[in-house]
Request: fold
Amino acid sequence: MTAARDDREEQVEIGSLSGSLGYLLRMAQLDAFERFHARFGDMGLKPAEVTVLWLVGSNPGLRQGTVASVLRIKPSHMTKMIQRLEKKGYVVRRAVPDDRRAVQLTLTPAGAQLVDRNWSDVLNLHRKFQTGLDEGEFEELLQLLRKLTGVADA
Amino acid sequence: MTAARDDREEQVEIGSLSGSLGYLLRMAQLDAFERFHARFGDMGLKPAEVTVLWLVGSNPGLRQGTVASVLRIKPSHMTKMIQRLEKKGYVVRRAVPDDRRAVQLTLTPAGAQLVDRNWSDVLNLHRKFQTGLDEGEFEELLQLLRKLTGVADA
DNA sequence: TATTGTTATACTCTATAACTATA
DNA sequence: TATAGTTATAGAGTATAACAATA
Reply:
């Protein structure tokens, strides 16, 4: 009796949960992950990894620690992530000349190609799906999120 | 030379990352977690757990599986979460009379009290902090997120 | 002494599948 | 046979702390 169960679920009183920013952010992020996976799943990379590649591509020689702090990824996690990206041949690690404790990152040609080919699609991924938002609303949403998080406009 | 390092980080070119919905959602969620932890950390509950308590309080006798599907939490994780909430004395599990495979959830008096005392603060947590958004912008953001995620307005 | 990145440990969340007890 | 929930296992992300190399 699937119908009966579905009926039950429709009776749930969500109420003021729809006024919770935390809940809405969580739901939005789950949707975003699903869209990413549907479109880029066969690339074998996760959203955070693609973001790291784009950031390194835009800032060649960026230190690993800087990438971690900009993206708010823990250093110990960053290490493992960069090792994966290096193993896949997208990233090169090199000691920083002035400070040999530090590691500077650059993309390999394969990494650069991957970013060039896909970054635009990554940015437009959510617009093109049936989000219910028109272009103006989408931009408004981005603007409000930038203001909320303190991320500077491009 | 901390100053030197800070200077380096300020030179990072974020560029079109500020146009990425996924990135902004991630940053917003990190901020939201931090605010939650600063305000409710000593309660010993996480955002998802508080949300479950509120949902059960608003829908006494709700099945565990329904809670899981509404909040998009995996059933196996839901089991462990409910066990924690039960152990802390906030939730009671009972077999559903019509279907003894299923479990219906209700709050204990302690659970109900916790929700009554804190839910309003949970909802208002992000407004009151220096988010940079005024009340109108905050409501607009919630509205756009509801539209994006398909969550019905209260 | 302090900092960059690495390694190690533990815990949470996710993903999956096998299992139980019911239906 | 199918479903509700549980258990088990493996992987990713987070949080900490200890560590090596370098500053």
About this structure: The longest strand of chain A covers residues 91-95. The mean pLDDT of chain A is 90. The CA atoms of residues 6 and 12 of chain A lie 11 Å apart.
